[in-house]
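Sequence only, no structure available. Ideas?
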Amino acid sequence: MLSEVLQNRTLFQWVKYAIYLALLNNVYLFLVEEIDSAAALNTSVTSLVSVFQIFSTTIDTAAWLILLVFFELETYMLSDQTLRGATGRAIRVIRGLCLVAICFACWGYLAEFYGLLASEPLDPMQCGNVDDSWSLLKGLDQFESLTNNVCGESNWVTLSNYDRVLATPELLQSAIWLAATDFINASAWILVVLVLEVEVRAVLSSRGEKASVGGSFVFIKLLLYFILFAAAVFWGFEGDFLDFWDAILWLFAFFVIERNVVSWREETGLVAD
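Reply:
I predicted one. Tokens follow.
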């Protein structure tokens, strides 16, 4: 019986770290996607603000991965005594910096959503000016260079907040919904981390004494995880496989962290009301 438990625990650890590696691979995939998008738009990095606007998803995912690793250290790998010392303070500082980067990335999602809202129909008189320096919006963060004159093929709109970008009304509306979902998803994840931070601090401050955490935390997290799951389902139906796959991996990763926190609370006598 004991050997079976140990085998299951070992298998779970391997699955957990495989998920973390898959998330690391997603950082690379998002970077490639955003580099291609920037190249199609002829966009260059001119300031720190432009870095967060162009590479918001890559920065967001990388910062989340670092945050996840430190939550894993706090809730599973390191002892409470270690976490109450210099190591714990260093972890909290780095995690705070990651949270700042995540908030900036969230702002990037909002800016992207706002940037897609302004558009106007393509004036037929402009057709002569549409050449290969223009780009086509194929989806959220997906652009391709214009290779032939598209005037007369469809009802095109120009994106007012972009430089020489065309889109069909249908694809533009789809991109707007996806951008809104990105922002809502990022905001929900930030709230999840804030709630987890409160729980981690409660465990460390208990110092082994019996204490309690509010049951409202459970309701808040269930609501947030429902929003995150709904966003993943939406991406799945929209055919955005990378975002869907990434969302599923993150939900599993934080299921692991939640499991760690529950076990940690039980060990220290901290219970939920």
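The first strand starts at residue 119 and ends at 121.
Hope that gets you unstuck.
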